[in-house]
Amino acid sequence: MKLANQVAIVTGAGRNIGEDIxxxxxxxxxxxxxxxLDKARGDKVAADIVASGxxxxxFVCDVGKEADIEAVVKAVMDEWGHIDIMVNNAAISDNKxxxxxxxxxxxxxxxxxxxxxxxxxxxxxxxxVSKGTKGKIVNVSSTSGYYGxxxxxxxxxxxxxxxxxxxxMAIQLAPHNIRVNAVVPNKIGSPVGKSEFDPxxxxxxxxxxxxxxxxxxxAVLFLVSxxxxxIVGTDLFVDGGVTTLxxxxx
Length: 250
Ligand SMILES: NC(=O)c1ccc[n+]([C@@H]2O[C@H](COP(=O)([O-])OP(=O)(O)OC[C@H]3O[C@@H](n4cnc5c(N)ncnc54)[C@H](O)[C@@H]3O)[C@@H](O)[C@H]2O)c1
Fold this sequence. Notes:
By secondary structure, this protein is of the alpha/beta class. The chain has six helices and seven strands, in the order E-H-E-H-E-H-E-H-E-H-E-H-E. Helix content is about 40%, strand content about 15%. The chain has helices at about 15-25, 40-50, 65-80, 105-130, 155-175, 215-225; strands spanning about 5-10, 30-35, 55-60, 85-90, 135-140, 180-185, 235-240. Bound molecules: nicotinamide-adenine-dinucleotide.
């Protein structure tokens, strides 16, 4: 069990990518705090993990609120005494044109998608330092952080921020023996904000198939395991190779 005796927090863990990350980390021995805004979803994932012999508990948290984040970090420390792994997975997309998005909508997307990874990094990082923990933090980024999109503006700005936040976090936490990295997915399972998998969703990549949540979970497992001990501040693309293609070139 490569993650035995380790405690992990996974945000947005109630379905899709976060669900598979939680279940895979638990299958490798981690105790998982399944954090989601939706209590029923988080509790279900935690119950599934416990039913299959793992350790997990659901925590309700709006990652867009610092008070909620501090409360979850405290609750996890009170419950299990240390935090070894932090996976910042929760995000929402605006799916809007810049003429249509309101300032409140913009701020909400940034709060959940960009500010939350910073705040979890800050509060969990402090908890890790207080216990001398060899910590691992993974931010779930997106290919939308590398390219503009017609159908989203706040989400692409936020994910672009996650890209560079990861590097500063990696530098600032490295002296504390905390490794920070990011995974960069493209079209994994169902679209952000939706639970239904749409097999007809247009997918262009070098694998000729949609990504699956387990594809991303496997990458996260690698980045929180000792096998990746020399990997710091990197963006690990889990995109079927789509970002290697130049549009229009045969
Ligand atoms: N699905 C994709 O194709 C894709 C592509 C690129 C990047 N990503 C990234 O992967 C991550 C997961 O995506 P997904 O498709 O699994 O998302 P999803 O929308 O299916 O699930 C997100 C989960 O986060 C929870 N959540 C939403 N707002 C929250 C809040 N304020 N506080 C706590 N929990 C909240 C939701 O209840 C839900 O359970 C995100 O960071 C997303 O940007 C996904």
